[in-house]
Each structure stands twice: as C-alpha cells, then as structure tokens.
Q: What sequence folds into this?
C-alpha cells in the first residue's frame, strides 16, 4: 500500500514538473523569442502593416477600406464617394461598430458559383436577383456610369474583372492598374486636377510582380488615396 502511494506521488510529481517546464518553454520562452525576432526583423509586418497619415494610423496595407458618403435616409448601402479611388466590391459576413471605415469584420467570398445566373455560359439580359450574374452586371453598370465624365466615356470592354467582383476574402486592399487607370478621369474631374498628374500618381503607386514573375501588378488603394489627398493639399 505504501509503495503504491509513493509511486503515485512520484509520478504525479514528475508530471507536474514536466507540465511546469513545458509551460515555461512553450508558453513563455518560445512566444517571447518569436515576438522578439518578429519585432526586430519584421517590425512593420508584425504590427499589422499599419499605414500612417497626418501623424495617425489610418489603416493597414493588407485590408481594404470603403470610401463612401454618409447614409441617406432610407438607404441600406451608402453611395461611393467619387472624389476618391474606389476599391473592389466588398464581400463579408457581418459588421461591427468599431471600425467605421470598413464595417466588415468577418471576411468571406460570395460563395456563388461561377455560373450563378448564367444561361449557356453567358449572363442573360435580366438575370435573377441575388445571382453572380446580377451582381456583376449591376457593378459593371455602376462602374461605367460613375467613371464616365465629359470627354471620357467608359465602354463595357474597358471594365476589368476586379472592378465588378470581390476577392476570395472580400477585403482586397489593391486593384489592378487597369481599374485604377479607368478611374483617373473621374478623380481628376472631381478634384480639379489634371488627368496627366493623376495618371502619374497611379503609375507611381503601381507595384509590379515580385522578381518579375510572382503575383500580379497592383495598386494599393489606401496608399493611392493618401497620396491623392497630399496632392490636393499641396496644389
């Protein structure tokens, strides 16, 4: 009996010591080491890839924002603020009251099939509500209308895919150079700037493929709009 109690106590003691050591190593030392390396070598990325403007954090380079007007009475969805470059259509599953710039807190895609609403592989003139075809056609019509200004008319063939579809996460911070270029005339007209200067701004903020072949050329919308704000302040 005494040997049994002694052995049990010894095993329990060994287990507690192992638990204490593993807790110290995996719960304290390892996290501290990883955090130290991240802060030392990847400080910006470890802290959320924050972007600052006017002395304060205005967002992250990894999460898209919406540039919209205040909601009008009876509206469920705000109108876009067309003085700014617009990002991709936003997807998501839920909202929050903390981040008022981008109310989506749970990211996600539409989960609609590629042929949702399509007939024989093409979108009909009047697809059913809620289908991917309906969403794409509505977005395309809005892009053409919003970005057509006197002397510049957007044609259906001018509208790139990323202007009418959301990304897999629904929070894509970047758009294609083609979509950014499509918005240049509208942004210039709305802000009293020259088309050439706004076009240069887009070129300056276009990131090319890493190593020449990884990824796609892209323009970070938040960074571009910060530069646009600075350009308007200094004109």
A:
């Amino acid at each position: 009996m005494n040997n049994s109690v002694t052995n049990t106590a010894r095993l329990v003691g060994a287990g507690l010591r192992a638990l204490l050591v593993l807790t110290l190593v995996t719960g304290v030392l390892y996290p501290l080491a990883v955090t130290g390396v991240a802060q030392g070598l990847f400080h910006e990325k470890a802290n959320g890839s924050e972007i600052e403007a006017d002395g304060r954090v205005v967002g992250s380079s990894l999460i898209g924002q919406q540039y919209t007007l205040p909601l009008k009475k009876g509206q469920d969805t705000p109108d876009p603020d067309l003085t700014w470059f617009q990002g991709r259509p936003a997807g998501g599953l839920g909202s929050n009251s903390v981040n008022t710039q981008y109310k989506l807190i749970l990211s996600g895609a539409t989960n609609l099939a590629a042929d949702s609403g399509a007939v024989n592989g093409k979108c009909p003139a009047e697809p059913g509500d809620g289908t991917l075809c309906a969403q794409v056609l509505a977005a395309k019509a809005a892009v053409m209308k919003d970005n057509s200004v006197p002397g510049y008319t957007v044609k259906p063939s001018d509208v790139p895919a990323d202007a009418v579809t959301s990304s897999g996460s629904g929070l894509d911070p970047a758009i294609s150079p083609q979509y950014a270029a499509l918005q240049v005339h509208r942004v210039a007209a709305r802000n009293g700037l020259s088309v050439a200067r706004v076009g240069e701004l887009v070129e300056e903020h276009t990131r090319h493929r890493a190593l020449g072949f990884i990824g796609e050329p892209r323009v970070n919308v938040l960074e571009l709009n910060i530069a646009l704000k600075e350009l308007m302040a200094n004109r």
Q: What stands out?
A: The chain has six helices and five strands. The first strand starts at residue 50 and ends at 53.
